[in-house]
Amino acid sequence: MASWLHPSRRSLLLGSGALVATAALEGAVAEIVETVEQLKPGEFAWHPERSPVGPVAVVVSLPDQRVYVYRNGVRIGVSTCSTGKPGHETPTGVFTILQKDRDHHSTTYDDAPMPNMNRLTWSGIALHAGKLPGYPASHGCVRLPMAFSDKLFGVTHVGTPVIIADTTAFPSSVIHPGMVLSDTAEQDFDHAVANLKDKNIPTSAEHPYQPPATSILVSSADKRILVLDDGHVVAEGKVTLIDPSAPLGNHVFVLSHLDTGDKELHWKPIGFSTNPQQPARGAGQDTLTRIRADRPVNDAIRTRMKPGVVMVTVDLPLSADSRSGRDFVILNDQHAV
């Protein structure tokens, strides 16, 4: 059932936050929340029934001051938010959740409460509940309505990708035959499926989802690829691109599921841009089919391939200059990590 919250409607809530209302009110609320632009500070929409299972991705739109939640490529939630104020801007780029804490308190700002905290960097950037005045007002974090932050906390896990950007191209579907990054696609696919069965990990979006740990980062600028487990590099090497003069684009691909019948990988791509003057563009199958990696990197990927694996493509060079502990990746106009 759809949920919609506003501070003035708390009398409609019971227990865990289920909305108690008449059918007429539910219809009116559903009509309101579908118009994203009309959401007022503190309002949100939540429709988990639209996609009950699958990997989750979170998109934070700085210009819109909105947070979008996708599960298996389908939008299940959207909320108002408040990002960093001038002088404390929220960094843009691609992050993965590093830590979760329902009752977190700031170690920097006088023990300030940060309920339902999803940490994005060890330097202090996170998604958490907080005040929403209707404009950027935080010290860099992304503030959310309390009830929405609780629902978001329930569907994320360590490793969930979070894209913070000035413009985004929302998910579509990309079906890639065989194993990505490989010239021996069918053989590699069979090995990946066998690995999943050995670990008892589901290979279909119809089954319960297991949290991912693996992220793949590909740069067209320096022709490099990194494979990371929980933010730690476990394999790296050179990348060969078909038509190397054309950019790959900035995209986050989340593996939805493996079709064992047709031997196909189903990806959900999200395009993003950290430059407001350069709109994001969507990705197609051609983006994936252009990428080839060396055998050791392919071997590392195929043993880790499972629903929820995240692959990031960028046209920026890779650099370790700003890597901090277990931080996964921060991409902005100046650097990539």
Explained architecture:
This protein is an alpha+beta fold and 337 residues long. The protein folds into two domains: 3-165, Beta Barrel (L,D-transpeptidase catalytic domain-like), CATH 2.40.440; 174-314, L,D-transpeptidase catalytic domain-like. Helices cover 14% and strands 34% of the residues. It is built from five helices and 22 strands. Strands 14, 15, 16, 17, 18, 19, 20, 21 and 22 form a nine-stranded mixed sheet that branches. A seven-stranded mixed sheet has the order 1-4-7-6-5-13-8, with helices on both faces. The longest helix is centred in the middle third of the chain and has 14 residues, at 185-198. The protein starts with a strand and ends in a 23-residue tail after the last strand.
State the main characteristics:
nine-stranded mixed β-sheet, 34% strand, seven-stranded mixed β-sheet, alpha+beta, single chain, 22 strands, L,D-transpeptidase catalytic domain-like, 337 residues
